[in-house]
Design a protein that fits this description.
single chain, 32% helix, 534 residues, alpha+beta, five-stranded antiparallel β-sheet, seven-stranded antiparallel β-sheet, 15 helices
Length: 534
């Protein structure tokens, strides 16, 4: 290969600079046209200008960062939106969709910001964020035992507003109160009442959605196919969900919670082995989560050990709970002193690591107690892990050190609902779901690569113990390791790679619905539902 002469290099530099300036100029002109389009489509009684934030605005950074819940995506190198629209009215959503589609711009929709991979506020192409946090009304109707909940509400606000009206009603959703309703509900939504009442999506009876043409729909006008898709298929692939109507569930005035820890030195292997067989078969009022992590051993030899933590919600009093546990799970050694009787709303606080006598108003705090760098993955288990498998797993976990596991038992109502009732397919036949949890405090790519690799290794070690063909995964625990959609000509096939794991046989129906309602794939992201290729 010849060597470029100095004059050739200078001309090449000028040419590249000229191209870059032209591209940037074109990009800026598109963004300016988009901004003008928003202003032109602003409803006179609900002006949009106060909801628009660009990098030139002094509040831009605080608005962007206020709902970033994974510090991996709050680095200086993280791509930033050219505009954030903090919708104050449904007309702002409609304007965002109409103008975004007109100018072929990437739109990311953010509710609470707990998206594990930051897909609701990060992109590798120029993009804007439609932020829903201002739209967070929770309207309870006790006469019909239902509520309309806007997508920008957090779960804590939903629980608090229900408890304001009734001591004997609740809703089956997540245990983290700062999670946003929009993403949680549309991806399935589960919590510690799922064995009694199923998922959040199993208790949604209506919705309001803005479609790709900017039209507002309810369940009747959107049709049953689209209503099916947005209850577990991920709403951001089909439209902008403004609100969900939920069916409240009955809870007793007194519930019981407990948390019991056992290490390997305290017979944890035998206790975990037994948990596998009883937790999915307990009465549906009882949910016992198992958390496995690595801690310092208290033995004289020192070193590391595995701690098994059993965290429970029982929809009843401690007397009945102890009867069930002594009969089915005496190995845990649960005693009356371990049990705390409280109200359902206070049990929510207990599960969030607050004392049960903390004021419920803390649930209205939209900021998490701590923010960390993190990575999550998921799996489903169909058969109990043998004891020698558990002992092998303990060794691998101790070697890795940081990642831990959360086992969430299925059975009960979860086994009774058809796998095709909603897009969420993980029903009968699943004993429990695994969440892989890795948190760290060091910034930078090197630290992230290290801890993400540890998580992937643990996920790899679990291969022989989890579902196969496909190796199933949970959409709310979104995991970019499962595949990326570049939204080009190969979109369907790229989408199928992760789509089959999240949705199994429901994937094809989701694709068909997506093709019907958004054939141009305006509502797209890196793990969205693709359209059919023709």
């Amino acid at each position: 290969m010849g060597v470029l002469k100095p004059t050739a290099i200078s001309w090449l530099s000028i040419l590249l600079l000229s191209i870059s300036v032209t591209v940037i100029s074109q990009l800026d002109s598109v963004q300016e046209a988009f901004l003008q389009c928003l202003l032109d489509n602003s409803h006179p009684s609900h002006p949009i200008s106060s909801a628009i934030f660009t990098p030139q605005n002094s509040s831009y950074s605080s608005v962007l960062q206020s709902y970033i819940r994974n510090l991996r995506f709050n680095e200086t190198t993280t791509p930033k939106p050219f505009l954030i629209l903090t919708s104050l009215h449904q007309s702002h959503i409609q304007a965002a969709v109409v103008c975004g589609k007109k100018h072929d711009l990437q739109m990311k929709i953010r509710s609470g910001g707990h998206d594990y991979e930051g897909l609701s506020y990060v992109s590798t192409v120029p993009f804007f964020v439609l932020d829903m946090f201002n739209l967070r009304a929770v309207d309870i109707d006790m006469a019909t035992e239902s509520a309309w909940v806007q997508s920008g509400a957090i779960l804590g606000e939903v629980y608090y507003r229900i408890a304001e009206k009734s001591k004997t009603h609740g809703f089956p959703a997540g245990v983290c109160p700062t999670v946003g309703v929009g993403g949680h509900f549309s991806g399935g939504g589960y919590g510690n009442m799922m064995r009694k009442y199923g998922l959040s999506v199993d208790n949604i009876i209506d919705a309001q959605l803005v479609d790709v043409n900017g039209r507002l729909h309810d369940r009747k006008s959107m049709g049953e196919d689209l209503f099916w898709a947005i209850r577990g298929g991920g709403g951001a692939s089909f439209g902008v969900i403004l609100a969900y109507k939920i069916k409240l569930v009955r809870v007793p005035e007194v519930v019981t919670v407990f948390s019991v820890q056992k290490t390997l030195e305290e017979n944890a292997t035998e206790i975990v082995y037994k948990w596998q067989h009883v937790a999915p078969n307990f009465p549906e009022d009882l949910f016992v989560r198992l958390i496995l992590d690595v801690v310092n051993s208290s033995s004289s030899t020192g070193g590391k050990t595995i701690r098994a933590s059993f965290l429970s919600l029982f929809l009843g009093d401690s007397k009945r709970l102890l009867s069930i546990m002594n009969d089915s799970f005496p190995e845990l050694g649960l005693s009356k002193s371990d049990c705390i009787e409280t109200s359902w709303i206070q049990s929510v606080l207990y599960w969030t690591n607050f004392s049960v006598d903390t004021s419920a108003e803390v649930l209205l705090n939209r900021t998490p107690q701590t923010l960390k760098f993190l990575k999550r993955k998921s799996d489903y288990v169909k058969e109990p892990i043998p004891k020698d498998g558990l002992e092998w797993l303990w060794k691998r976990m101790i070697e890795l050190g940081t990642p831990w596991l959360i086992f969430n038992p299925y059975g009960g109502r979860m086994a009774e609902i058809s796998a095709s009732e909603t897009p969420f397919p993980h029903r009968a036949g699943n004993l429990w779901k695994i969440q892989y949890v890795t948190n760290w405090n060091e910034a930078g790519a090197e630290a992230a690569d290290h801890y993400i690799n540890l998580t992937r290794k643990l996920h790899g070690y679990m291969t022989g113990f989890v579902s196969k063909n496909p190796r199933e995964a949970f959409l709310n625990y979104i995991d970019i390791d499962l595949g990326v959609n570049h939204n080009g000509k190969a979109s369907y096939w790229e989408g199928r790679v992760y789509g089959i794991k999240y949705f199994k046989s429901n994937f094809n129906r989701l694709v068909q619905i997506k093709t019907n309602v958004d054939p141009g794939n305006f509502f797209r992201h890196e793990q969205g539902i693709p359209t059919l290729s023709y």
